[in-house]
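Students often ask why we bother encoding 3D structure as a string. The short answer is that it lets us treat folding as translation between two languages. Here is a chain of 102 residues written in the first language.
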Amino acid sequence: MPHAASQGRSMFSRFAAPHTFGPDLSPAESLVAIAGCLTRIFGGCALFAVWGGAGAFAWNAIGNRFWRVAAEMPLFLLFLAALAGLMIAVSAVERSILPGVD
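And here it is in the second language, the structure alphabet:
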């Protein structure tokens, strides 16, 4: 006997899929979700590559070892802030295109 909570749901909606890609999405909603996912992947990779290159340049530009070590944490925190900003911006654009999709 099926579980009571799964009554009335399709077989595909019972799978443990990420909430963004639910089985009840329309083709347009699916395309927006896929575009958002790919933007997060490629944007994150590009940000990581650019930040890594800029961090290496900054590391080589600092001559004193103490200041090199002191600069690591702010650079890392700025990278995390930029990455979080990218993820928030992509989510905001997705919500503005399709307001009913979370």
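Translate back mentally: Residues 47-97 form one domain. Keep this in mind for the problem set.
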